[in-house]
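Methods — Computational structure assignment.
A single polypeptide chain was analysed. Its primary sequence is given first, followed by the predicted tertiary structure written as structure tokens.
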Amino acid sequence: MMRGMGILLGCCALAAGAPPAETAKERGKRVVYEALDALGGDAFLRMEDRVESGRVYSFYREALQGLSIATIYTRYLTPIPGQLAVREREAFGKDLSNSVLLIEDGAWELTFRGARPLADKRYAAYKEGTLRNVFYLLRQRLKEPGLDFYSQGSDLYENRPVEIADITDAQGLTVTVYFSQLTKLPERQSFKRRNPDYKDFDTEVSTFAKYRDVGGGVKWPMNIRRERNGEKIFEIYSESVQINKTLKDDLFTLPANVKMLPKEK
């Protein structure tokens, strides 16, 4: 009897000394911050701007609609909770004459004819997609009040082990991200967005592949694909990604003498 009591007390002592199991919230937060470290940690958070150059494909109902040699310029602004804090210019061809300008309070398509404001629903889709993009969340929103993390556990994605975590903001909008168990980097994300025309929900999925060190230990995916409701809508195959190029204000500003065209329908 005494011997059995000693074994029981020894087991209790071992259990008392063992670390407590992670909660789903703790595990989710750990996975997200491990991804931040894998992307470059402080160097990723200090990334001021980025220039991506390569081939861009657009699709409609899985059919190729356009192919361009594009350069995408991105500059981060001081984060403001719940608001867009980034500027982007997508240039198609050899110069800036044919491009799309996307900033925190509007968007325009620029051609030799002038500047045409993008339709409200197109800009709204861009804004929501950016705010819920995992790289934007990690770079701009991690300190935002009300941001929450929740682990869905581990699984296989394309025969590779992943950790799955939900990131939810103060408005209750959630993006689900698959992080590689081996590299800790994001491989896939998905979220639901209300369709303004049909009043139902679209499922937006992005996948990320071929990460490269783009300077100072910062990693970025060279291949990005986006799908909507299971149909491919966009792909970019970057040949070059550079960061911290000190991009100037005029790159993200409408020319002073530009002709303003009617808003896109």
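Note: The first strand starts at residue 49 and ends at 60.
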